[in-house]
Amino acid sequence: MGKKDASATKLPVDQYRKQIGKQDYKKTKGALKATRLKAEAKKSSSGFRDAFLLVAAILIFVLCVYAFFYLNLSTELDLDAD
C-alpha cells in the first residue's frame, strides 16, 4: 500500500470533523462568538467551584480530626472519674 493509497482512505473521525466544520460555517459570527464566550465562562467558573470544594474538604478533614481527639480525650476523662 503506497503513500497515495494510505492518504485516500479517511478516518471516520476526520469525516466527522469536516462535517462539524461545515456546520460551523453555517452559523453567524455572533452565534459563534456567543458560544465561545459561554465556553470560556464555564471554564473560568470551574476554578471557583474547585477552590470551594478544596476548602470544604480541608474543613471536613479538620473537623474529623477534632472530633476524633475530642471523643478520645472525653472517654479518658470519664474513666478517670470512676
Helix and strand arrangement:
Layout: H1 3-8, H2 12-26, H3 29-81
Note the beta-strand portion: under 5%
As residue ranges, the low-confidence spans are none
| Structural domains: how many | 1
Order of helices and strands: HHH
Care to describe what's here?
The protein has one domain. Helices cover 90% and strands 0% of the residues. The longest helix has 53 residues. It is elongated. The chain starts with a helix and ends with a helix. 0% of the residues are buried. The mean pLDDT is 78.
Write a concise synopsis of the structure shown.
The chain is mainly alpha-helical. It is 90% helix and 0% strand. The chain has one domain (12-80).
Identify the notable features of this structure and list them briefly:
82 residues; 90% helix; elongated; Triple QxxK/R motif-containing protein; transmembrane helix; membrane; TRIQK; transmembrane
